Amino acid sequence: MYSSKSLVKKIHHFLNYRKLIIVCSLLPIIANATVANEDFLQCKVNLVERAETAGFSSYITETVIGNISPIERVIALDKKQPEFTQTFEQYIKARVTDYHVRVGNKKLKQNKKLFDTLEKKYGVPRQYLVSFWGLETVFGKHKGKMSVLNSLATLACDERRSEFFTLELLNLFTLIETEQVSVEQLQGSWAGAMGHMQFMPTAFLKYAVDGDNDGKVDIWKSEVDALTTAANYLNQIGWQSKERWGREVKLPENFAFNKVVFDQYYPLDYFKELGIKKTNNKSLSSYDIQAELYLPSGHKGPVFLLYPNFNVIMTWNLSKSYALSVGLLANKLVGAKGLEFLPQEQTKVTPYSVVQMKNLQSQLNALGFETGEPDGIWGPKSRDAIRSFQLQHQLIADGYPNKEVFSTVTLVQSKNKAITPSINQEG
Hints:
CATH architecture of the largest domain: Orthogonal Bundle
Strand order of the largest sheet: 4-6-7-3-5
Order of helices and strands: HHHHHHHHHEHHEHHEEHEEEHHHHH
Largest sheet: 5 strands, antiparallel
Number of strands: 7
Oligomer: single chain
């Protein structure tokens, strides 16, 4: 490894030479980044061409890329992510556990001096850093043992998210080329995330901090480096130090769902006017902050108001279930309750499969409620389409794909099919 001064000089020289712009400024070239090809050997040829164009050395284009091989299991795991296959309740139960709280509290005590420093410098409360740590690797127990190079190459050669993973792979090459990491270190998750806090290469390249001042950043072995980098990352992407992530709330009876569009922010006072209260039945504050209403399981499950810091968590991992897990675990680490209104056994929300969701999206599209390309994921477009359908058919407009939505959509579609032939006959 280089000394810190020579390493910085080498990195600057290399980045100036190849002019590889990392994530925040990649928009102009992102369309050219993909190397996807069903034939992995051809994909490697495409990758070599991209790397040569970016100015990488023959060590990268011949040795590193030459040794890359596909991992079939990575594609299977990409299609079965728990964020898409588990109900919210299942997801939370598996991640916000008594073990996470118990060990998390130990970590808070063991690293008190470090967290004092990080809070003062970066403005990120310690419970959030520990929450991320617990959720990502169970405090370093499960950092991943897959080849990061092979995982990223496999995903870059797959069409689903080729652009994203090609860019991550190119930025990993930068880390190797500038000797910030060694190929031997590169073990991580199936998606290419690395170390205690599971940073993707681009996050490492842009936000890594040598927290223990030993002249290098080691996010695998140095807890200090990993936590300091996490604090810097959250600070840089917009964490508001004096605000929380959101809160669980209670809806009034017969809540006016027609007055709230999902995935949209409103002043907190607006929700107060609509009768939403804290879980202890006290009124919401009049604090000047924007909030979003979110019902992860529909009106039969828990209800949340999400604040701007929630979007910062979502930048780390683009899953609302994950972000809620971070917030709820952070709350428990400082003595607050977890979920207060999990549905009882008899009113549990019936989970839907990816296939069922795809079919529902196709049906809604056919009925004029636009969900985009059916992908089986309950995202913003699907929530909006379901809400619009529910409002039109006098259902509770919670935007959730519950049994009533599935059955009503099928009924409406069958009626439309029955009407169409008779119209044609009359014509």
